[in-house]
Amino acid sequence: MDMNGKVAIVTGAGQGIGLAICKKLAAAGANVILNDIDEELAIQAANDVAQTGTCIAVPGDSSSLNVIQQLVDKAVSQFGKLDIIVANAGITLFGDFLSYTPDAFYRVMQVNLGGTFFLAQAAAKQMKQQADGGTMVFMSSVTGHQAHQNLGAYGMTKAAIEMLAKNLVIELSQYRINVNTVAPGATLTERTLEDKDYEKTWSRITPMGRPAIVDDIANAAFFLVSDEAKHITGQTLIIDGGWTSVSPSPY
């Protein structure tokens, strides 16, 4: 799938799924704006992606309205337009419901919901102005479909992100902007592999016999932002090796 000349923003892309998405986009010819809250990680990741394509780092908190505008402005000033956004940034703050703190709750809402909502808003304004359409992918989770211990607040945000994608069908289809969501299940990333039992546990309870790797998720996101998926909108693609069909707990 040819992405030659397309301009894309990917948030939370210093490592893991976001970085894998950037690599696929850049290798296919897209000009990529890579964001991560960790400046050093963002620059390092952008340099890595730039080995196979065009990638520029714009570090910062993806839930900040100023940073969001910087991302859109950088895309337009550097490449003249904005075609694609992947709102991948998110945080997971585990906690028992009865003791979950307001600080943790509102931070999860700010990053996962606010960052996605306002990036989509800023991008949509630019895409509308260009009058040439555009495409958006949001990052959800299987925890937006199945209850998961100690992830009440996080799961709320992921279910809400999927509803946002549906609602934007009403708001943005008239501008030829399509919006979809990817919902990963257990995935091997730098963060999850900090748990030495993670791969073994999820291999045991996933019907396909293994957790996802980042390319499993990146391949789906890449398809959804491609021209081949322009008539798909308001949908969520669950990528979990069948886990949500049976939903055994890892605990």
Strand order of the largest sheet: 3-2-1-4-5-6-9
Unreliable stretches: none
How many angstroms does the end-to-end distance come to? 40 Å
Number of strands: 9
Structural class designation: alpha/beta
Overall residue-averaged pLDDT value = 97
Task: Note the overall shape.
Answer: globular
What's the CATH topology name? Rossmann fold
Reading the helices and strands in chain order gives EHEHEHEHEHEEHEHEH
Strand content: 15-25%
Report Rg: 17 Å
Largest sheet report: 7 strands, parallel
* Residues in helices, as a percent range: 40-55%
Count up the helices.
8
Question: What key phrases describe this protein's structure?
Answer:
251 residues; alpha/beta; Rossmann fold; 7-stranded parallel β-sheet; two-stranded parallel ribbon; 8 helices; 9 strands; 44% helix; globular
Explain what the structure shows.
The chain is α/β, with parallel strands linked by helices and 251 residues long. It has one domain (7-242): NAD(P)-binding Rossmann-like Domain (Rossmann fold), CATH 3.40.50.720. It has helices spanning 16-27, 39-49, 65-79, 102-130, 152-172, 198-205, 214-224, 243-246; strands spanning 7-10, 31-34, 54-57, 84-87, 134-139, 177-184, 187-188, 212-213, 236-239. Helix 6 (198-205) links the parallel strand 7 (187-188) and strand 8. Helix 1 (16-27) crosses helix 7, helix 3 packs parallel to helix 4 (102-130) and helix 4 (102-130) packs parallel to helix 5.
